[in-house]
Structures are given as structure tokens and as C-alpha cells.
TrEMBL record, chain A:
PANTHER family: GLYCINE BETAINE/PROLINE BETAINE TRANSPORT SYSTEM PERMEASE PROTEIN PROW, GLYCINE BETAINE_PROLINE BETAINE TRANSPORT SYSTEM PERMEASE PROTEIN PROW. PROSITE patterns: ABC_TM1 (PS50928). InterPro entries: ABC_Gly_betaine_transp_sub-bd (IPR007210), MetI-like (IPR000515), MetI-like_sf (IPR035906). One of its GO terms (biological process) is glycine betaine transport. This is Glycine/betaine ABC transporter permease. Residues 94-273 form the ABC transmembrane type-1 domain. CDD domains: PBP2_OpuAC_like, TM_PBP2. It holds the Pfam family BPD_transp_1. The keyword Transmembrane helix applies. The chain crosses the membrane at residues 47-67, 74-91, 97-120, 141-168, 255-272, 293-312. Keywords: Cell membrane, Membrane, Transmembrane, Transmembrane helix, Transport. It is a multi-pass membrane protein.
Automatic annotation (TrEMBL), chain B:
It catalyses: a quaternary ammonium(out) + ATP + H2O = a quaternary ammonium(in) + ADP + phosphate + H(+). InterPro entries: AAA+_ATPase, ABC_osmolyte_uptake_ATP-bind, ABC_transporter-like_ATP-bd, ABC_transporter-like_CS, CBS_dom, CBS_dom_sf, Gly-betaine_transp_ATP-bd, P-loop_NTPase. This is Quaternary amine transport ATP-binding protein. It is a peripheral membrane protein. One of its GO terms (biological process) is glycine betaine transport. It comes from Enterococcus florum.
Length: 573, 400
């Protein structure tokens, strides 16, 4: 017994083993789902983005007008809110988000309503399902991302998977509640006339529970919306990505605009679903307005279909194919990946750039979901990932020399070496994302230096770290950060690396380009560009500074590509 | 041959039913069994027969098991043991399919709170039974409209239940059951949720209906008067067991045991009856505000030909006959000019035997007063009734 208390149970290993087994056993099934889902979602997003935004806004505004029973509040809000999103250039992100929310909600309904009915009919089912629902609702949404990536790789499919798990419970609960709340006498009445179970369900229970079920569905859509931001960590496109990258790069303004767009979408979705749920005023009246709404929807659908047909005809430009590049939301990688992406675009490729978490980025190249990345810091920072995956990817070599990681302090602090640290900065090293290589190196460093025995590494995000640094420097407070170059912060503030006599943070590093196996056969031209891509710290810092001064990454990359035609041509050879 | 025959029907809810059964045999009461075993006795060892075309009333206080009983008859609740024969078939042993057929064609139910579907119109409610049977739409609507027409509700067919009064809703509930043309009608406290006036109306309607359609009706109520008005035979239940079955007359005259006797509101013989035990509320006109028209109106409504007249403090002023009220209306006089101030009054604690002597030569009811405040009136009928009971009881010993 005491033994049992002293030895921790290998629960993590069990779960790991189980997930691996699932992934292996159902690999075919998952990949079919992944491809089918991806195709469906791309098609849907494509269709939604093909419709001219302004026309779409008009249609939605008209729908809002009729759905809200000709009230001006919601109508105006819809119009102004959507125009704002369009004006901020977030329209295609919005459409991706809508696709994600719509699919998650629809799936939740398809799975949830039958489950709710089962729960209401069978006590045993209720006893079994209720704790599972509690578990699903309280488990942090992040946790679902891990198996989602293992099963479905990166992109929208795992996002939907995670959202469904997270958003399903309200629909199930409310369906169960709605059916159980029906007065017993009515159920007895149906039975006493010899109604079958099916007749009872469709003629009595579902119609009466409808408004409760719709309330649950409304909750579900809201939860799916909240998962959108979290799912963007595993590459789900949409507004969430903007929020996340704003967080990682500490851009208050960008975060606010993306967040506001989500709020507008949430309010519109919420009011739409609530208004559908309005109880009948008078049967005849609603029948008339139903016809109206039906007419509007039909007309809108016709318009959309026409447009879709046009668009598909017009969209058949020859494309050389699609290249998926993934990267980590560090300022260095944002710069380099956008530049490479820009070059590939000019060559006629469709390029998707997906920001991911570090470990997931590696994994996505391993499974071939990303064609490559230019963000592998070797030999030290990404040592763990490289060791794990090096046989499953192709290393195209260095794209930037002399990158360096280390512990960095402001130059007003009188420490020169890691060994001089004692009790400064609350004995805290301010780090970045928990999965990042530099954080692992810092943790190793803390263990190797005896004087750091009481120190710990506080993880946050790259953006949060630079904000904390800026604040410390403003107030002349001591701070120790996990730093790396090239980085714009060295241009902006007076900083210095601490000497690392034990070499625990690694020596000067190089950034490598890593691509999936088989890219050379599939896309030789793109492979060639990735293979030739290399530049200097100076180049990179130019782009980084431009981005940090508020230019958007794509434009900064374009400017740099324009300014360095010779270098770019060298890559294309 | 009887239409419905129930033999040794028992229903126990909950766990440890064997133990509960054993305790019933020892004559333990319901609450004790519940405390000991956690099992509730719904119905225990009930046997009775209902004949074709009969209104059979099951009566009892709440918790006596009468609602469970009626639900056992169409197996909304499955019996623990016993047999229920309908037309000689034991429905307790039927499978789902056979049972469904019986419910669809033979036996229908009317509920206490009407059991109407709020999301369906009156017509859609009425045709429900036919709809689940799979009758084609045209035909079932025709039948449903016919049933609604019979209860005078056809004009409301496109309304929703919430737009109708309670009485109308219950008529719909009845029409819904009758649209199926069942042989047996189960009515579970069907009129309990209605106010007393509508209740009487519905009882009359049910009796009219019964004289036309000759259904077998099993009617549940907790109201003795209702049972006496409509029941051909009455079964009285207590704690899940049937105490007595018989006609209303039998139950009133030969109560099988103490419980039945108490239930039929037998007056406590340990006290001697006085005026206040037998008086009924007085019908009055207020001399300070009412005129002859109001008084006449009230007489018409209450179906009487005289009223007592009081002032605002309920002090007795006299009596008013219909003739004198008509006269006052003709001559445009106030009530005070036409009332008869000579009303016989008796005090509250006067004994019935003394009243007996007074009432025989009094043309008007006797006013029961306290001081000069009117409390009620004593009418001839109530005196006779009380005396008749009294004489009958002479031979019966009473547990004090």
C-alpha cells in the first residue's frame, strides 16, 4: 500500500499507449475522415469566400431583418458589424471561422440530439453519459487538441473534432432535460391511445422539447466559437489565428480587432439562433412569416449557387499546386516563412502558411501535412524534436548562420555570466511558449548550474516575454529572459547575452530548412527554392523590424523580395 | 358476461416487494410498510367486475391507490401480480403489440388535467388517437369534427388548448377519447380540476352522453357527491385496498366498516345535533344596496322564491318573497317597504328535536342567528335527514 503511494502510477504512459494504439489501428479511418472533412471544409470555405462579401452582407442583413421580426436593432448591428469586419480585411478569416463553427454545431446536433433522446428514455444511459458529459465540459479545451492532432494532423479537421467534443454537452443535456420536462400526463395520453415510441417522439416529445433543445444548440454554437481561438494553435484557420498571433507577438491592437470580429460573429449567431427559438405568437402569422423566410432563404441560396458556379468557372486558373509551410509564431520565423512563401507565390503556387506550436509543427512535417518549414533551430534548440523525427524528414541544411540562443539581460544589470546570478529578478527566468526549444535549454541550464538551484523558468509566450522585457527596462527592473538572435529586441533595447561557461544553452546555432520526405518528387521547383533558400541575420532583421513597426508580415515580405531580386533569383535557380 | 374483470390485482412500487407483501398480509398500514421496506403499496388484492354500459366509480382519498388502479386497467402501469380481463382476454399477459391494439380500439382515457397537447390545435388533439392508428387524414378529420360537434366545440377546432377554458378543454379531452369510439372509457378525476359549477354541468353532460352511447365507464373521483351523482356502482378504496363495492345507496346505508362510515361523512354521534350542525348558508339581499331587480335576479339564479334581507353588518331585517319584490319593482319602491319583518329566528345552539317542532308550521325557513346576526338557515330537508340518520344509528354501537 505504501509502495503504491510512493510510486506514481504511469497513467500518462497508459494514455499515451492507448492513443498510439488508436492512431495506429484506425489510421485508415482517421485519414479518410481527415481527407473527406478537409475537402468538405475547403469547399465550404471556398464557396463562402467566393460570394462577393458586400452581397453576402446584404443577404445576411436581410435575413436578420426578417428573423428578428423586422426589428432594426439586430439588422443594423449585423450590417455595421459585418461591414467593420470586411473593412478590417478579416473577411476570409471570418468565413473560415463560420465554416468551423457551423460544422462543429451541425455535428454536435447530429450526435447530441440522439444521445439526449437516449438519455431521456433510458435511466442506465443517463447514469453512464452524465459523468462523461461532466468530464467533457470541465476538461480544458487544450487537452483535446493533443489527440486531435494525433488522429487528424493539423488544420480544420482536428479543430472541428476538438470543438465538437467541447461543445457537445449542452445539446445532449438540454435535449434530455426538454424531453424529461414534458408533463407525465401528456406522455400517458400518447401511450393510452396506443401511440408507438416513435410516434410519441416525433408527434409529442420533440415538438414540445424543441425550444429547450434549441437553447442547448445555442449554447453549443457559443462554445464552438470559443474553441475557435484555441483550435488555431493546431492550425485551424480563421479569426482565432489572428487572436493567437497577436497574443504571441503582444500586439494589443491586432488582438482587439480580431477579438471584436469574434464578438460580432458571436452576437449575430446568438441572436439568430435565439430568434429562431421564439415561441409561436399566432399560428397563422408565423406560417406567413415562415413562407417569407423560406422565400428569402431560397432566393439567397439561388443567388449563392449562381455565384458559386461563376466563381468555379472563373477559378480554374492554372496553379502549380499547393505548398503548405508551417512555422512557429516567433518573430524570426514569421519573417523568414513569409519571405519564402512570397517567393513561392510569385512562382505560381498556392501557398498556405500555418502557424503552429513548436512540437506540432515538427509533427505536421513528419506526417506530410506540411510540405516543409524553415524554422528548425539546430543542433540545440530543437534537439529533442530533431532526435525524435530526423529519420522521417529531409533536412535541406542551413538557411541562416550564427543564430544564437541564451539567457539575456538588460545591459544595466551587473551580471556577465550565468554563474553570477544569485537572487536577481525574483530568481525567475522569463521564458516563452512551454514547448519551445529555448525553454527546454533554459530548464536544462537551471539544473546544471548550482547557483540556479532555486531558480525557475516561467513560461508564457514570445509576445508576452517581449512585453515583460519592455516594462522591466522602462522601470529599470532586473529581468532575465530566454533570448535568441536574430531578434528585433536587440536593435530596440540595450541587451546582452550572459556567458554560458558550461554551454548548457548551446553554442551559436543555425536555422535549418526541413521538408517532408517525397517533396522532391512531388514539387521539384518548390523543393528547389526551399533547398536554395538562405539569407543573413541582417536580412532577417530588416524584415522583422518592418513587421515590428506595424507593417503586416506579407507586405514586409513583399517589400524585401522586391528589394532583393538577385538574391531571390539565386534561390529560384 | 362482464366487460372488465379484475382478479387479485396488486401493484407494489419500489424494492423489497416480497417483504412489503408479507407486511400487508399482517395488516400493517401503508406508511409503516414504506418506512420499513421502502416499497409503496399502490394497489393490493383488488377484485371487481364492471358490467357493460355501467358507470363504475372508484372513490378514495388521495394516496388510496385509485389513480394507480385506473392506470393498471390500460397497463400504463404494469401490475405486480393479478389478472385484468377485458372481454375475457387477460391484458396483463399481452405483449406490446397486442396491448397497443387494445388501447387503440377498446379502451381510452380522459385525464385530470386534460392531457391536451399544447402544440396541437383542438382538431389535431381530437384526431390523435385516430392518427396513431393510421386512419387516413380525410376520414380521421371527419370523425374528429363529428366528435367536436357533439360536444359543441366545432367552432374552436383551429384554436390551441391554451385559448380555451378548463371546461372546454375537458370536453376536448372527452371528445378525443370518444372520437376513437372505444368500448371502455377510463376517467381519472376528470372533473376535479374544474370549478364546481362547470363540474356539475360536465357531470350532467356525462350522464346525457351515457344514455346515448352506452359506454362502459370507469370513473375515478375523491368526491363523494360526484360519485353518488353519476355512479351506478361505487368502489371505495383506502391504502390500496378496496373497502366496499356497492351502489351509492348500499354504501350510505350499510357501510362495511368504520372507515367507510367516516368517509360518507357520517356525523359524529357522540355530540347531540344543534342548529348549527345542520344549517346551510343563507341566501340574502342587502337592504342598503340591493334593489328589487337585484333581489329578483338572485332568486332566479339560485332557483328560490324568497330571500332573507340583511344590512351591511349581516343583521337580519326580514324576508322578501318573489311576489313582494315584483310589486316593489312595479311601484318603484325600495326593498325596506316590502319586506316581511316577521321572520322566525332560532339561536345557534338550539337542539334539532326542538327545531323539528318549529319547522313544521313555518312557511319560511328558520333563520339561525347569534344575537341579531344572521348565521345561516335551517330547511326542512336537513332536519328530516338528521333525524332519519339518528334513528338508524340507534342500534349501532360506536367506538368512542
Amino acid at each position: 500500500m505504501l509502495d503504491f503511494l510512493q510510486q506514481s502510477l504511469p497513467v500518462a504512459d497508459w494514455v499515451e499507449g492507448f492513443t498510439d494504439w488508436l492512431t495506429r489501428t484506425f489510421a485508415g479511418f482517421f485519414s479518410a475522415l481527415q481527407h473527406g472533412g478537409q475537402f468538405l471544409m475547403d469547399g465550404m470555405t471556398g464557396l463562402l469566400t467566393v460570394i462577393p462579401p458586400l452581397l453576402f452582407i446584404v443577404v445576411l442583413t436581410a435575413a436578420a431583418f426578417f428573423i428578428s421580426n423586422k426589428k432594426w436593432g439586430l439588422t443594423l448591428f449585423t450590417l455595421i458589424g459585418l461591414l467593420f469586419i470586411y473593412n478590417q480585411g478579416l473577411w476570409s478569416d471570418l468565413m473560415s471561422t463560420v465554416t468551423l463553427v457551423l460544422l462543429s454545431s451541425v455535428l454536435s446536433i447530429i450526435i447530441g440530439v440522439p444521445l439526449g433522446i437516449l438519455m431521456a428514455k433510458k435511466e442506465t444511459a443517463k447514469t453512464i453519459i452524465t459523468p462523461i458529459l461532466d468530464f467533457m465540459q470541465t476538461m480544458p479545451g487544450f487537452v483535446y487538441l493533443i489527440p486531435a492532432v494525433a488522429f487528424f494532423g493539423i488544420g480544420m479537421v482536428p479543430g472541428v473534432f476538438a470543438s465538437v467534443i467541447f461543445a457537445l454537452p449542452p445539446t445532449v443535456r438540454f435535449t434530455n432535460l426538454g424531453i424529461r420536462q414534458i408533463p407525465k400526463e401528456l406522455v400517458e395520453a400518447s401511450d393510452s391511445f396506443g401511440g408507438t415510441g416513435r410516434q410519441k417522439l416525433f408527434k409529442l416529445e420533440l415538438p414540445l422539447a424543441k425550444s429547450t433543445i434549441l437553447a442547448g444548440i445555442n449554447q453549443t454554437t457559443m462554445l464552438a466559437l470559443s474553441m475557435v481561438v484555441i483550435a488555431s494553435m493546431i492550425g485551424a484557420p480563421g479569426l482565432g489565428r489572428g487572436v493567437l498571433s497577436a497574443l504571441q507577438r503582444a500586439q494589443v491592437g491586432n488582438g482587439f480587432v480580431n477579438g471584436l470580429a469574434l464578438v460580432i460573429l458571436a452576437i449575430i449567431v446568438d441572436r439568430f439562433t435565439q430568434n429562431i427559438n421564439k415561441p409561436k405568437q399566432q399560428a397563422k402569422k408565423t406560417a406567413a412569416s415562415r413562407k417569407k423566410i423560406g422565400g428569402i432563404i431560397a432566393a439567397a441560396a439561388a443567388v449563392l449557387l449562381l455565384l458559386g458556379a461563376f466563381a468555379l468557372n472563373g477559378n480554374n486558373q492554372a496553379s502549380k499546386g499547393t505548398i503548405n509551410l508551417s512555422y512557429v509564431e516567433w518573430d524570426t520565423e514569421v519573417a523568414s516563412t513569409h519571405v519564402v512563401g512570397e517567393v513561392l507565390k510569385e512562382m505560381g503556387y498556392d501557398v498556405n502558411l500555418t502557424p503552429l506550436d513548436n512540437a506540432i509543427m515538427w509533427e505536421s512535417v513528419v506526417n506530410g501535412e506540411s510540405d516543409g518549414m524553415v524554422s528548425a533551430w539546430l543542433p540545440n534548440t530543437h534537439q529533442a524534436q530533431y532526435a525524435q523525427y530526423k529519420d522521417q524528414v529531409e533536412d535541406l541544411g542551413v538557411n541562416l548562420e550564427g543564430a544564437k540562443v541564451g539567457l539575456v539581460v538588460p545591459d544595466y544589470m551587473d551580471v556577465e555570466s550565468i554563474e553570477d546570478l544569485s537572487d536577481q529578478a525574483n530568481q525567475t527566468i522569463t521564458g516563452i511558449e512551454p514547448g519551445a526549444g529555448v525553454v527546454n535549454a533554459a530548464e536544462k541550464t537551471v539544473q546544471e548550474y548550482p547557483n540556479l538551484a532555486d531558480w525557475h523558468v516561467a513560461t508564457s509566450s514570445s509576445g508576452a516575454m517581449t512585453v515583460a522585457l519592455g516594462q522591466a527596462i522602462q522601470t529599470k527592473q532586473p529581468i532575465v529572459i530566454t533570448g535568441w538572435s536574430p531578434h528585433w529586441m536587440f536593435a530596440k533595447y540595450g541587451l546582452k547575452y550572459l556567458e554560458d561557461p558550461k554551454g548548457a544553452m548551446g553554442q551559436a546555432e543555425t536555422i535549418h530548412t526541413i521538408v517532408r520526405k517525397g517533396l522532391k518528387e512531388d514539387q521539384p521547383d518548390a523543393y528547389n527554392v526551399l533547398d536554395n533558400f538562405n539569407w543573413t541575420q541582417k536580412d532577417m532583421e530588416d524584415v522583422m523590424l518592418a513587421i515590428n513597426d506595424g507593417e503586416n508580415p506579407e507586405d514586409a515580405a513583399k517589400d524585401w523580395v522586391k528589394a532583393h531580386p538577385d538574391q531571390v533569383n539565386d534561390w529560384k535557380k | 358476461m362482464s366487460k372488465v374483470k379484475v382478479e387479485q390485482l396488486t401493484k407494489i412500487f419500489g424494492k423489497r416487494q416480497q417483504q412489503a407483501l408479507a407486511m400487508i398480509k399482517e395488516n400493517k398500514d401503508k406508511t409503516e410498510i414504506l418506512e420499513k421496506t421502502g416499497a409503496t403499496v399502490g394497489v393490493y388484492d383488488a377484485s371487481f367486475e364492471v358490467n357493460e354500459g355501467e358507470i363504475f366509480v372508484v372513490m378514495g382519498l388521495s394516496g388510496s391507490g385509485k389513480s394507480t388502479m385506473i392506470r393498471l386497467l390500460n397497463r400504463l402501469i404494469d401490475p405486480t401480480s393479478g389478472e385484468i380481463y377485458i372481454d375475457g382476454q387477460d391484458i396483463a399477459k399481452m405483449d406490446k403489440e397486442e396491448l397497443r391494439e387494445v388501447r387503440r380500439h377498446k379502451i381510452n382515457m380522459v385525464f385530470q388535467n386534460f392531457g391536451l397537447f399544447p402544440h396541437r390545435t383542438i382538431l389535431e388533439n381530437t384526431e390523435y388517437g385516430l392518427e396513431v392508428r393510421g386512419v387516413p387524414k380525410e376520414e380521421r378529420q371527419q370523425l374528429a369534427e363529428q366528435a367536436l360537434d357533439n360536444s359543441g366545440l366545432l367552432s374552436f377546432k383551429d384554436q390551441f388548448p391554451s385559448q380555451l377554458s378548463g371546461g372546454m378543454q375537458q370536453r376536448v379531452g372527452l371528445a378525443r377519447a370518444l372520437a376513437n369510439d372505444p368500448e371502455i372509457l377510463l376517467m381519472d378525476e376528470a372533473f376535479s380540476a374544474l370549478d364546481p359549477l362547470i363540474r356539475r354541468e360536465m357531470q350532467d353532460e356525462l350522464l346525457d352522453l351515457q344514455s346515448n352511447v352506452q359506454k362502459t365507464i370507469i370513473f375515478i373521483t375523491h368526491d363523494l357527491n360526484e360519485a353518488l351523482r353519476i355512479g351506478d356502482r361505487i368502489a371505495l378504496m383506502k391504502d390500496g385496498q378496496i373497502m366496499q363495492i356497492g351502489t351509492g345507496e348500499e354504501i350510505l346505508t350499510h357501510p362495511a366498516n368504520q372507515y367507510v362510515r367516516d368517509f360518507v361523512e357520517d356525523v359524529d354521534r357522540s355530540k347531540v345535533l344543534t342548529a348549527q350542525n345542520i344549517m346551510v348558508p343563507a341566501l340574502t339581499a342587502n337592504i342598503e344596496v340591493d334593489g328589487p331587480n337585484v333581489a329578483l335576479n338572485r332568486m332566479r339564479k339560485e332557483e328560490v322564491s324568497m330571500l332573507l334581507v340583511v344590512d351591511r353588518k349581516r343583521k337580519l331585517k326580514g324576508s322578501l318573497t318573489a311576489d313582494s319584490a315584483l310589486e316593489a319593482r312595479r311601484k318603484n319602491l325600495p326593498l325596506s317597504d316590502v319586506i316581511d319583518k316577521n321572520v322566525r329566528t332560532i339561536p345557534k345552539d338550539m337542539l334539532v328535536t326542538d327545531i323539528f317542532n318549529l319547522i313544521f308550521d313555518s312557511p319560511t325557513p328558520l333563520a339561525v342567528v347569534e344575537g341579531d346576526r344572521l348565521e345561516g338557515v335551517v330547511i326542512r330537508g336537513s332536519v328530516l335527514e338528521s333525524l332519519a340518520d339518528h334513528q338508524e344509528e340507534e342500534g349501532v354501537t360506536v367506538d368512542a
